[in-house]
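To whoever is on call:

I kicked off a structure prediction for a single chain this morning and the downstream step that reads the tokens threw a length-mismatch warning. I double-checked the sequence; it's 291 residues and nothing unusual in it as far as I can see. Pasting both halves so you can look.
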Amino acid sequence: MKKVIGVITARMASRRLPGKVMKEIAGKSIFAHNVERMKLVRGISGIYLATSEDPQNASLIDEAKRLGCGWYAGSEQDIVDRHIKICEKENADAVIRVTSDCPIFDFESATRFIDEFQKDPTLDFIYVTNMTMITGTLSELISYRALKKVHEIYRGAAVSLPIKENPEKFKMCGITIHPDLCRPEYRLTLDEPLDYELINKIYSVLYKDKPLDLHEVYGWLDDNPAIAKINNRVVLKGCNVQNANLSDSPVFSIVKSAKGFVIYDEHKRVIEKDEFLKKFHKLFSTKNLND
């Protein structure tokens, strides 16, 4: 059996929501909720915090120790290297990678990644094909071999971006998840104060001292549309934009959801159909086409 480690990337120095990984919801830190979910991923051989040497992360490292996690503090910018160092320390063949701003990530798909990797250890990258990662509900599996190859050309935060941009150089495997979990209209990542407000509301109602069921979360958001819209105008930033668009920057994106179609604008924000049609007609007006 190949060894797979669960790795949670986290740091305290977030510019848009400082200290977000240690913010409390339902009596526990965001990081603790990530660890709680990672423990339900079947087949992992341990859980690690991947953070930086910034002194601000001392409280985060203490939290990892309290929760019984391993930890590694490395480069502030070179997050790929953090994962490589953890693999080397643990003699691991692959990592299940999730960022700490995803406190409602789907642990079942992560388990399926490991199952696929155990069946074929030559795989470099395993991911979900029918749902976008930018909404904060997915992880990914990256082999140690692939991390080393990525590190030859890349030192940034978007660890899997070079793999997605160069699929011919890596052995990739995509899986599909249940259609009910394909809900790109809901933003469940934690990057801005409005994100924290939404996730805090979700946890305050649904959390019962065990990891949230993602099906139940989506059902509750369907029943509470006003709450669900709290953060739907947040603009995607940083390496998330790179991952979302890769080499393109579409004006509009239309994604199929379990509840129909979801429309994104150029900032990856959800917009209503009427607003889209208005912008679409304006974009393709005779004047604009002539220009």
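Update from on-call: the warning came from a stale cache, not from the record. Cleared it. Sanity check on the structure: The domain at 4-180 is CATH 3.90.550.10 (Spore Coat Polysaccharide Biosynthesis Protein SpsA; Chain A).
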